[in-house]
Amino acid sequence: MTAPIESPCILVCAIDPVTGYCFGCGRTGAEIGAWLGLNPAERRGVMADLPARLATIERKPRRETRRTRLRREAAAGDGGGGA
Prior knowledge:
Elements: H1 29-34, H2 40-56, H3 66-76
């Protein structure tokens, strides 16, 4: 039986156009594509660099959803003002 391949993937797969790093794991598209072909030492080498890479990605704030807005308004006592 083969041991599972270690991976930093967190299933947030989108590449930052500025840095070229995945927003979720910090790997490049080329590294993601080659991952299964890398040996364990190569994978660990890439994974050692990931925290520093992720720190360089500027994440845009998420847009406010309707649910979040309603919750915020209710907490502020605004109530939405609609009738």
